[in-house]
Design goal:
Strand order of the largest sheet: 1-3-4-11-6-9-12
CATH architecture: Sandwich
GO molecular function, one term: zinc ion binding
Strand content: over 45%
Number of domains: 1
Number of strands: 23
CATH superfamily: Jelly Rolls
Helix content: under 10%
CATH class: Mainly Beta
Order of helices and strands: EHEEEEEEEEEEEEEEEEEEEEEE
Protein name: 4-deoxy-L-threo-5-hexosulose-uronate ketol-isomerase
CATH topology: Jelly Rolls
Family: Belongs to the KduI family.
Distance between the termini: 46 Å
Cofactor: Zn(2+)
Catalytic activity: 5-dehydro-4-deoxy-D-glucuronate = 3-deoxy-D-glycero-2,5-hexodiulosonate
């Protein structure tokens, strides 16, 4: 079994003004997250947030300690969120099994010693997307299905942003220290997400795009509202969004994405909104 972990250091809003396209992609785009029979992790210096992917096919994969956390176990000082975007999978936490269908989530609290990942069918493997943040308290492990989520219906077909937001690991659904996660699904005919765009300087965020049809892509918008930048994103790739950056996207077809964030507070609507007419 292999765990591959790389580090992304924090980049300031002034530094990116000198970046070319490749430098920008190298710092903020997370590609090759879903690799067969590997655990891929990206340790960021934005709120010490970790992004990762697990695709168990021929073996059970175990989330063991990594050098970056300097701890005996991965969750000694962390909490973990798992969202399955593939076939039926099983996450085992200290001997307790949790089955996750597609788009179901699992919150794993601080202090758990052993977390393993398996697929029910190697021909249709699970694709587990992971987010992890530092934790100061141990909360119970809890599975959250789509039926358990808090659902928001936003946007409209007329503005090309009709979408359903499934708030999975959020305050009011499950207790967490600072981690929040959910899934946004764009409806057929709609392509814009998170519009109007917003910032929240009190926490960072990451978007993991999936269900992008073959041959299609999403253009993810970043940067300050008055000086935006963009990254073209393929299926099952993620973008790290610093606190100073907006986050929004537009696809060449409808798609879904997992959003995850951590930082100062747990108020989902803590955001500074910027109307489309304000963006430059």
């Amino acid at each position: 079994m292999t765990i591959n972990c790389t580090t992304r250091y924090a980049i300031g809003r002034n530094e990116i003004k000198t970046f070319d396209t490749q430098q920008f992609r190298d710092e903020f785009l997370c590609h090759n997250i879903m690799t067969q029979d590997e655990i891929t992790l990206i340790y960021t210096h934005y709120d010490r947030y970790i992004i990762g992917g697990v695709v168990p096919v021929n073996e059970v994969l175990s989330l063991t300690a990594i050098d970056e956390t300097k701890s005996e176990h991965f969750l000694d000082r962390r909490e973990l969120g798992v969202v399955n975007v593939g076939g039926l999978g099983v996450v085992t936490v200290d001997g307790v099994e949790y089955q996750l269908e597609a788009k179901e989530a699992l919150y794993v609290g601080q202090g758990n010693k052993q977390v393993t990942f398996a697929s029910a069918n190697k021909n249709a493997p699970a694709h587990f997307y992971l987010n992890s943040a530092p934790a100061h308290k141990a909360f119970p492990t809890k599975k959250v299905g789509l039926a358990d989520a808090n659902i928001l219906e936003l946007g409209s077909l007329e503005t090309s942003n009709q979408r359903r937001i499934h708030q999975l690991l959020v305050n009011g659904v499950v207790e967490t220290c600072q981690l929040q996660m959910g899934i946004t699904c764009l409806q057929p005919g709609s392509v814009w997400n998170t519009m109007p765009a917003h910032q929240h300087d009190r926490r960072m965020e990451a978007y993991f795009y999936f269900e992008i049809p073959q041959g299609q892509a999403v253009c993810h918008f970043m940067g300050e509202p008055q000086e935006t930048r963009h990254i073209w994103v393929a299926n099952e790739q993620a973008v790290v969004s610093p606190p100073w950056s907006i986050h929004s996207g537009c696809g060449t077809a409808n798609y879904s994405f997992v959003w995850g964030m951590a930082g100062e507070n747990l108020a989902y609507d803590d955001m500074d909104i910027h109307a489309p007419t304000e963006l430059r």
